[in-house]
Description:
The complex is a heterodimer.
Chain A (H helix, E strand, L loop, with lengths): L2 H13 L1 H10 L2 E7 L5 H20 L8 E7 L4 H13 L5 E4 L3 H14 L3 E3 L16 E3 L4 H13 L5 E5 L4 H17 L4 E6 L8 H10 L4 E4 L3 H14 L6 E8 L1 H4 L11 E4 L9 H11 L5 H20 L4 H8 L3 E4 L2 E4 L11 E9 L2 E10 L8 H8 L1
Parallel strand pairs in A: 1-2, 1-3, 3-4, 4-5, 6-7, 6-8, 8-9, 9-10
Antiparallel strand pairs in A: 10-13, 11-12, 13-14
Chain B lengths: L1 H31 L6 H16 L6 H25 L11 H21 L10 H4 L1 E4 L2 E4 H23 L1 H11 L1 H6 L4 H22 L10 H16 L4 H21 L7 H12 L26 H20 L2 H24 L10 H17 L4 H23 L4 H21 L1 H4 L5 E2 L10 H24 L1 H11 L1 H6 L4 H27 L1 E2 L6 H14 L6 H19 L3 H15 L4 H11 L1
Helix pairs in contact in B: 1-6, 1-9, 1-10, 1-11, 2-3, 2-4, 2-9, 2-10, 3-9, 4-25, 6-7, 7-9, 10-11, 10-12, 12-17, 13-19, 14-19, 14-22, 14-23, 14-24, 15-16, 15-17, 15-22, 16-22, 19-22, 20-22, 23-24, 24-25
Amino acid sequence: xxxxxxxxxxxxxxxxxxxxxxxxxxxxxxxxxxxxxxxxxxxxxxxxxxxxxxxxxxxxxxxxxxxxxxxxxxxxxxxxxxxxxxxxxxxxxxxxxxxxxxxxxxxxxxxxxxxxxxxxxxxxxxxxxxxxxxxxxxxxxxxxxxxxxxxxxxxxxxxxxxxxxxxxxxxxxxxxxxxxxxxxxxxxxxxxxxxxxxxxxxxxxxxxxxxxxxxxxxxxxxxxxxxxxxxxxxxxxxxxxxxxxxxxxxxxxxxxxxxxxxxxxxxxxxxxxxxxxxxxxxxxxxxxxxxxxxxxxxxxxxxxxxxxxxxxxxxxxxxxxxxxxxxxxxxxxxxxxxxxxxxxxxxxxxxxxxxxxxxxxxxxxxxxxxxxxxxxxxxxxxxxxxxxxxxxxxxxx
Amino acid sequence: xxxxxxxxxxxxxxxxxxxxxxxxxxxxxxxxxxxxxxxxxxxxxxxxxxxxxxxxxxxxxxxxxxxxxxxxxxxxxxxxxxxxxxxxxxxxxxxxxxxxxxxxxxxxxxxxxxxxxxxxxxxxxxxxxxxxxxxxxxxxxxxxxxxxxxxxxxxxxxxxxxxxxxxxxxxxxxxxxxxxxxxxxxxxxxxxxxxxxxxxxxxxxxxxxxxxxxxxxxxxxxxxxxxxxxxxxxxxxxxxxxxxxxxxxxxxxxxxxxxxxxxxxxxxxxxxxxxxxxxxxxxxxxxxxxxxxxxxxxxxxxxxxxxxxxxxxxxxxxxxxxxxxxxxxxxxxxxxxxxxxxxxxxxxxxxxxxxxxxxxxxxxxxxxxxxxxxxxxxxxxxxxxxxxxxxxxxxxxxxxxxxxxxxxxxxxxxxxxxxxxxxxxxxxxxxxxxxxxxxxxxxxxxxxxxxxxxxxxxxxxxxxxxxxxxxxxxxxxxxxxxxxxxxxxxxxxxxxxxxxxxxxxxxxxxxxxxxxxxxxxxxxxxxxxxxxxxxxxxxxxxxxxxxxxxxxxxxxxxxxxxxxxxxxxxxxxxxxxxxxxxxxxxxxxxxxxxxxxxxxxxxxxxxxx
Lengths: 397, 609
């Protein structure tokens, strides 16, 4: 099994050290990328398109420090243990210089743990769990997207102005859903001590019994609803909620619902006036160039995943250029405080917890023709949705 | 009161949706004895085909009904093709073998649907009549849900008439009881079985299309409906359509009220219900006792290994021991994983082959072992050897406690009770975040420095796993092994000569559980982490696939199956984006080429020679 390659690899590492030094001079920089391409295609297929655009742009402009960029991509099948095994293959066999990717939180955490053990840089794109940069933060791990905490914190100023005082929550029954609800309750209570939470629904991910869930929420007579559902669950929930009138006369705050991945399937049933985080495609002036290039190539408007993939690769290129090397220690130093550009505007990787300040849009859902869209949106910079540095340091220990 | 009424109606609508999927599954199983794991995939295809059809038709009720009927017909045709092209060739194989073929179909359909319809969730736009509601006790209730409530009993009545009042139905019922006699009377049972499978597939298509107004066509439908459909079929009693309807009502209503009373229980509710029903009624609500429910089929007596075979094993072990000399770190990591897979498969084979107790939830013991090792190493600071000792202990003890309920059952009922237990363990691992870390798992459980190189990890895993598998094999040739096979082949005679068959089966269950627990403990240190995925249904399926692929009724089967499956999986995952399609096709081809498993075919050829 792969013995020839194994032999060759060992021989190369053992005997040909000078060749490696030479390779560092002009061979391509190799980025090992692992993601859930078959387990979560709705997000990861546009994401792959996004990083492909970025790679072509970087190489067309001469690469990084005179070297081309090459991405070796693997499918983790949604399994953290598979992800780390493939990361091992990328490091040991394919000799990549750093690791990137991840969609599911548990994959992100496992990759981070593996990269720390192998002393390689890991730049996470999508995994949202707070633990990735806080409780289980590793010096070798950076994360691009706003975390669960940040997503909630970004909506909070607007959510706290809503009149609702009796809140109900509905979230998929796993870590992401639970922590989003936890943060919403904590942060809202801190600003508005008079609010109460009257019901929590936790349907199993991908298996919501939407009629019963809607009915149970309605039965609690809330005047505000906090939603964390997404994907097929959200579609079912919205359809039952519309018919049964759950959303009428109620404030709804909903995480990620403004992202095209989750908004488009709602179609002409998109409820209007929900307070959401997301990406108003086609409306952001700064993103015009990227959106045009993407549309041109894939005959389709970009999704949130496309922006994440695109920005992830550009931020990595910026970091390598700043380090002037692919040495892990130098990369970490370069990434801390690294400024990079995104279709949403400039951002940095924070030195204190390695979290990107790449932000997201907070706005209201609206119906345009038979498609859902976002209105009254504004861009929230990730740096404005953080706990104090002291709190972060205490969490990272 | 009004609130209760609306909830009950919501539960009834949910029950109808469940019943539509489950009815097809139970019809297929009742007649052909095929455990159709691809039934969820047929439902998913029903949703996608329904979307394609309905988005092109006018949106009034008559056209909608026509579109749904057309979708059901299309799926029935597809089902007929599937039966004629694949499953028909496997009726003579051991009973669960068709499950392996349908597992291959699941993988193929996943990639085919992604390639055909793309990654986005697809929805049909609901015209006003589909959004309409009526006021019941001051609450708004969807008219479409009322329609669904009516469709359930209507389908039930049609099926009852079909099976009880038509000539075709009589023949099918006769073929269910005695295939050969029906054949001897001049009835072409092949046509009969094809038509039954087509009927089941058509019902799946109907369920998929009717689900569209309340949701979407998406790539998760297959796996999200299949488990609950199985649960309904088993609670109702295998093959009983009325039972399936009653079970759907039970589950639908419990779910509707369950989310109000204990919202956190959504992950386990149906499995707890199934476990309770099976403990009280071992053949489900309306299942007939004494029907042929054995799964693995009878086997020829086991012969001790010949000198040639022992030599072969020795050479394989030598090659495995020499691997670190030539293999690189990644190849070694694959071989390490293969070693763990061998013990995991061997432990399932132990209960499933010689024990005659197929398990759909074998990952439970693997997972309990993994969590026992992980939690003790990280939470209590137990050193690795101690943690590796705790893993089989914990899994073995859990297997004894739970096995006491399991060994009273047989066949698919037994298999599904193990699945229920595995799901309860999975839900605990998933939801008990403060202890298990939830779905983020437990990380950083690496071996101590002396055992941290890939070669050392590999040799350690090889020693423990190959050693464990060898012990299992040795036990099967001991008097206990003979007693176990006697309990499987002829429980009555075994009892008559003084064997306590239940206790023997329970002991086998415990040994297998402990062995799987050891595999889980080793895996924890190999991966440095534990995740709820270790206890999940797909992981149980992996074990089942490995055992069936190798051949249930051979001693070498699990080893061959584990190596073949791990090799295929790891090789394909890296080689192609369409790895599910290729893996599924490979499984289907292997199934057609070796209808007794790979090792089974080799054994037969050797015997003949």
